[in-house]
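Sample intake sheet
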Amino acid sequence: MKRRKSTGVVEEPSLPEGFSWGRDINPEAMSYGQIAVDPNGNPKAYLGYMEINHQSKAFQYSLCVGGRTPEARKSYQFLELRAGGLHLSSFLWNNQPFKILENCQVSLPCSTNNTFGVITKTGSDEAMARTLFGATFDELDDFIDHFYTAIRYTPEKIWNWKPARITFSKSRDNNCDLTGVHIPKGFPFIAFTETQYFGGHISLHGFYRHLAFLCHYRRSMDGKIEGEAFFKRLVDSGAKPEVIIQLCEAAFAGYGYPLQDPTAALLRLRC
């Protein structure tokens, strides 16, 4: 049997049905908060574009501005949501297949509603919310109550108010008291109301990193979760072990440049 001679040309794999190469998707094709997924279902969501020639604010420019800017998709000026954090990122990877989802997008707080998540035509997508925000709103809202109880040794039931809550600012931008990352107005953060000067603005991803630093745990051969010190205290306070691990793992899911104050971020990009 004769062997076929190699031509030296690597054939490009075929695209799954309904997908396009990242390089063929223009940023203008994605609206605010719309989600694109790869063949494995991993989501990517962009919430804006940071104009490098101006000291712009987050969410000020839509993705279409990046679509009209030459070489923008290669830059790290797109505002990507990942694990509860905002990161300056490039656009969809050129050689990766993606599909833009219809009737599925990121939902951020507005008016008197401080919830967040991923909404679909039929309801919500909790799995995707966990990837993009690190947790669903209900999971995180419940967990911070147990976290507060664990650090204060105070039973929740004696309080008639909520000392730890998820909120957002309607009028101004803030910076995270733990990490210094930028929290644009309209984006959720955690506030501990008892603290007057520290803890008033905790970014979601900053909270996850702090939690991961405090918690030590491991999985035994039979899959049982074994925690130590503060991990045990959280469980004793009512927190679910699987949620603790989920939030700790979200701390390491971010990559790229965390969004700093827009003026500082743009100065760095110019260098």
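Comment: The chain has seven helices and 15 strands. Confidence is low (pLDDT under 50) at residues 265-271.
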